[in-house]
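Is this the right way to post structure tokens for a design question? Let me know if I should format differently. Anyway, here goes:
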């Protein structure tokens, strides 16, 4: 039975903790002054590289990055220390808006219970899903948790994940940045095995798909396959790569492998719809997206996809109805 941390530790409520990560630092730094210090607008959330700056200037909390192995996350939870999960896509997008607070665990079932950053359905994560991104343990600086050797290794790899994220950001934004360390690590990680290396491998996979030629991306993902083939997200990234190579049948096969391992992942399911659209199968894409809307009625991403498909299908009435539905879902007056 899941034992929710929130009921035992009120000050670690999901809205409070997530707002801490988004820029509210309690008594230490106000939201407005934090954005002023970073030179950003208070009307948007922090980017990931900005979040790293905040981590380094110090707050009244320790924010410890770690690779989310089941043992490491459970060890923190057993000491009433909450853990935040950040999906790995921020490695490219730099957005930290996809955050969940891991509030409890069910070791016998191998799942972790999480609360989202916005009102939504609670989430259940397995260890493979946590290994697709990065976790952060958040606790007062006065607390000294007891950590095993394996958890210390998970913390070490979490720190490296942040380091290569910074390097990738510098490569993208600084023309004269020396990328040799990043390039060397991108190759040496191929020789590592075990769960601790998976988040770094997936991060480099995302990077090569976005920044290198389709041929180079295929070569790199092929090299990753022997050690990553049990990861649903690896197969999803491979499907993205094959789609960019215009190899639609292979992309569909890779998505099938991803869905075998994670059958209810809306992002994977929506990618099937996207492949139908790329294959000029608009009717099939619409049918799939409408089924997903019925299956996941609270998911705004599905609604946004349907809006675009109705526009392509030249159906303004359905597009308008879906637009109104999306506004109600995300509580805004306008959708762009």
């Amino acid at each position: 039975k899941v034992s929710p941390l929130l009921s035992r530790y009120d000050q670690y409520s999901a809205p409070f903790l997530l707002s801490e990560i988004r820029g509210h630092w309690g008594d230490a730094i106000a939201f407005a002054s934090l954005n002023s210090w970073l030179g950003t607008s208070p009307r948007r959330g922090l980017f990931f590289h900005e979040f790293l700056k905040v981590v380094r200037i110090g707050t009244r909390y320790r924010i410890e990055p770690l690779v989310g192995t089941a043992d490491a996350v459970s060890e923190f939870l057993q000491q009433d220390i909450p853990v935040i999960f950040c999906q790995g896509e921020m490695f490219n997008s730099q957005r930290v808006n996809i955050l969940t607070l891991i509030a409890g665990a069910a070791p016998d079932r191998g799942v972790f219970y999480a609360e989202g950053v916005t009102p939504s359905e609670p989430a259940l994560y397995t260890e493979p899903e946590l290994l697709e991104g990065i976790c952060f343990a958040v606790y007062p600086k006065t607390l000294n948790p007891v950590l095993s050797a394996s958890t210390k290794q998970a913390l070490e790899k979490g720190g490296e994940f942040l380091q290569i994220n910074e390097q990738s950001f510098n490569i993208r934004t600084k023309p004269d940045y020396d990328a040799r360390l990043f390039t060397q690590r991108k190759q040496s990680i191929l020789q590592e095995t075990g769960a601790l290396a998976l988040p770094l491998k997936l991060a480099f996979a995302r990077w090569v798909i976005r920044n290198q030629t389709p041929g180079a991306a295929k070569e790199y993902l092929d090299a990753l396959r022997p050690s990553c083939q049990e990861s649903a997200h690896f197969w999803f990234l491979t499907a993205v790569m094959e789609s960019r190579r215009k190899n639609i049948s292979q992309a569909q096969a890779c998505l099938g492998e991803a869905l075998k391992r994670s059958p209810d992942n809306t992002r994977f399911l929506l990618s099937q719809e996207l492949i139908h659209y790329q294959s000029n199968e608009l009717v099939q894409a619409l049918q799939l997206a409408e089924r997903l809307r019925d299956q996941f009625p609270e998911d705004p991403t599905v609604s946004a996809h349907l809006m675009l498909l109705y526009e392509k299908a030249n159906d303004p009435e359905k597009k308008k109805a879906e637009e109104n539905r999306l506004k109600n879902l995300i509580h805004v007056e306008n959708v762009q």
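Format looks fine. Someone answered above. Worth noting: The first strand starts at residue 61 and ends at 66. Residues 1-38, 40-44, 117-121 have pLDDT under 50 and may be disordered.
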